[in-house]
Structures are given as C-alpha cells and as structure tokens.
Amino acid sequence: MPSWFPLPCRAAGAVAAAGAFWLVSSVSAARPSPPLPAGLPEAERVQLQQITDAADVATRVEAEPFVTRREVFEYLLDHPEFATHVARSLRLARYRIWRTPAGLFLDDGWGVSGHFWVVYAANGTRVMRATGDYKKALLPRIRGEAVTMIEYDLSPAGDGRSLVRPTVSGFLRLDSRLASLALNVASAVAQRKADLEARRLMKVFARVSRALEENPAGVWEQLRQRPDVPRPELEEFGRLLNAR
C-alpha cells in the first residue's frame, strides 16, 4: 500500500534457465515519462531524472476512482508506515514498513526489500524514490532504483467525502544489464502485468477507505489491539476519524 516500489522490483526478479528469464511484472520503458513536479528542488530533480530517463521498466495507469474523505486518504499517503498497519490489520496487504536511521525500510513479504523516501508532497501529487533489491531462493539477486509518482484529482462526493481519481506512474532502473535486456524482450506481456499490479495498489487504498467509511470505530479498535502500531499515529488517526 505505501508505494509502487515492490511492483517494479518484483519486475526485476528473474531466473536464469536455459538463457531465459521469468518476469513477475514489468513494462517497456518506451512509454513517455510524465513531467516531474515543478516544485521539486533542483538537486532532487536531477537524481530522479537520472532514473526516469534511463528506466528499464515504466508504467503509468489511471486507476479506478473511489470515494473517501480527503484528509483520511492524504494521511495514509503521508504516513506509509502507519498505512501498512491499517492494510495488514484488514488483511488487504502483507507489506511491512519501519523507520531506520537511513529512512523508511520496506519488506513486501515476497522477496522485495529496500529503503524509500517521500521526496515531494503537494496538493494532488506524491513522489517517492527507492533503492532496493529482489531476492528469492535459487534466483539471482537483482538490484535497482525506482521512482514512484501518485497523482490524484478530487471532486466533491457529498457528506464531506471526495471522489478520488488516481494515476500511478513508476520507473525502475536496474543494475543488471542482462536483466534489462530480458525486460525489453518480454515487454508486451509484462506491460499488461505491470498495469494490473499498479491498479491493484490503488484498489487497496479504495478497500481501506471503504472499511473506514463503514466501520471506523471497528478498524481503529483492530489497530489499537496491535502492539506494534505506533501510539502517536494511532491517536492522531483516531481524532481524524472522529472529525466529521
């Protein structure tokens, strides 16, 4: 739920077998890259552009709209560690995120792990950068860098809620030239898989939002009973849910 990062990194997961690669999900880098936000600091822009311009894997999809309260949606976007607790308590995802001195660390439970940072947060846009790898038994380790951009439009939906129309973009640059070649060879089939996974990411947001709309007290209670949920964020989220 916190980021598109696991998707492109799993895309990099490949196994050498008779010179072929098994691709979990990927997409051709031939797609045009959306412009990075104008408000990005120049030093950060240069670093991100180096990844997006040389991406081996890229995707950009318009996900299905969903209804939620803007403040709840944006709180989850801006607190990825807490958002994973919400998704896991509802059995909607298995990602885990925790803070380290080097930044947020993610483990998706399927072999992808790495650090990521929210580098830009403004009205209607969030941008994240990640570094990590894909590790699986009997498979070669694949390392890479990723950029994720979540853009969204909001329109009134009544009763203090908004209709969210999200677009997810992701770019992955691999360290392995052999894996990069494999991704390009299999791009047609892989693109469909990558787009599907990007839409699934936003479906998790939609399902969490629906659960919070239907039973906010019940979801909060589930979170309260989890000893690993950060207490300050839990109390803050509780106040947010009650602010109707």
Tally of strands: 8
CATH fold naming: Alpha-D-Glucose-1,6-Bisphosphate, Chain A, domain 4
**Proportion in helices:** 25-40%
Question: What is the count of structural domains?
Answer: 1
Main pleated sheet: 8 strands, antiparallel
- CATH architectural name: 2-Layer Sandwich
Mean pLDDT metric: 78
**Content-based structural category:** alpha+beta
C-alpha Rg (nearest Å): 18 Å
Q: pLDDT below 50 for ≥5 consecutive residues: which ranges?
A: 1-31
Count the helices. How many? 8
Going by CATH, what is the homologous superfamily?
Answer: START domain
Strand content: 25-35%
Element-by-element helix/strand order: HHEEHHEEEEEEHHHH
Termini, distance in Å?
Answer: 25 Å
CATH class: Alpha Beta
Molecular structure report:
By secondary structure, this protein is of the alpha+beta class. It has a single domain (6-242), classed as START domain (Alpha-D-Glucose-1,6-Bisphosphate, Chain A, domain 4, 2-Layer Sandwich). It has helices at residues 6-12, 42-53, 70-78, 80-89, 177-185, 187-214, 216-224, 231-242, and strands at residues 57-62, 66-68, 96-100, 103-107, 112-122, 125-134, 142-158, 161-174. Strands 1, 2, 3, 4, 5, 6, 7 and 8 form an 8-stranded antiparallel sheet that branches. Mean pLDDT is 78; it is low at 1-31.
